Amino acid sequence: MSEPISPKRVRTVHLQQFKDAGQRFSMLTAYDAQIASIFDESGIELLLVGDSASNVMMGHSSTLPITVDEMLVFTKSVVNGAHRALVVADLPFGSYETSPTQAVATGVRFMKEAGAQAVKIEGGAAMAEHVRVMVAAGIPVIAHIGFTPQSEHALGGYRVQGRGEAAQALIDDALALEAAGAFCVLMEMVPAELATQVDRALRVPTIGIGAGNGTTGQVLVWQDMLGLGSGRLPRFVKQYANLREVVGQAAAAYHADVSAGTFPAPEHSFEG
Ligand SMILES: Nc1nc(=O)c2c([nH]1)NC[C@@H]1CN(c3ccc(C(=O)N[C@@H](CCC(=O)O)C(=O)O)cc3)CN21
Ligand SMILES: CC(C)C(=O)C(=O)O
Ligand SMILES: [Mg+2]
To answer: In terms of domains, do 137 and 272 share one?
Structure first.
């Protein structure tokens, strides 16, 4: 077993070192400074300011409506809370697909205005030229393939990608995006064996969500992982805590104290 990789500040080069050393790294989403600092201090290497903020922060039913300006606020907040982890911003739907020029312009905003150290875009080989031009402009890019939620209407719903004949196309997408200069390829809802095969076919590290145990890294949406939401969780989530219960019980206890007149007590009050 090689020495654990534990940089003072995580950079893209370290993620390559993880893969080269046969080690795994972790990514969680974050949308605010306090949660970012907790995950940062817990050793999470990568923080994703996901466009899942559209769902978990704003209450929309998909990622499609969130805007660049909204994502910039969440990204600035995470950058302010993160000291060690690498902060990656999701480029939202409609902000990069039109052209490599549009993708560079949006990526530059996330780096210049919010301090993101990398960005993520959804799409396969059709986005390879976008990635190439972004990387040439100095924007580190994670390529997101498999189930790409921004394309849910084109894909016909939330479903596993790359089964059967589609497997080769997914491998080809991954290779094209690596060749274009993506420093990482993220796979969402892909059969475990296929994701493992992609990780082995690529030099660069892979990150999985619903992609089994053979990717270099893993990512989850933090509210799913910590049990803050109310809905049914996707199969790929492991729930490590039940914050909804903790927070709900605390709020109810506060409400009861206020109703009963037991909060505030003298120690919470000021004398004249
Ligand atoms: N809270 C949250 N968690 C996420 O993981 C997430 C978001 N939001 N928003 C953006 C995308 C959308 N994602 C999702 C959301 C739901 C399923 C889901 O319901 N999956 C089911 C059905 C799979 C199938 O039928 O093949 C599952 O059981 O996994 C999958 C991916 C992942 N991302
Ligand atoms: C689920 C992850 C990969 C994501 O793209 C997001 O949180 O928006
Ligand atoms: Mg996303």
So the answer is: no
Distance CA 85, CA 45 (A): 5
Q: Do 252 and 183 reside in the same domain of the chain?
A: no
70 catalytic per annotation:
no
Q: Which of 31, 51, 52 to mutate to test the pocket of ligand 1 (most atoms within 8 A of CB)?
A: 52
Given CA atoms 145, 146, 150, 151 in this order, what sign does their dihedral have?
A: positive
Does 256 lie in the same domain as 209?
no
Q: Which two tokens stand for residue 86?
A: 């690498």
Give the span between the Cα atoms of 132 and 120, in whole angstroms: 13
Domain range for 175: 12-241
Cβ atoms within 10 Å of 103's Cβ, excluding its own? 25
Does 51 appear as a known binding residue?
A: yes
pLDDT tens sequence across 9-60: 999 999 999 999 999 999 999 999 999 999 999 999 999 999 999 999 999 9
pTM for the full predicted model: 0.97
Residue type, 171: I
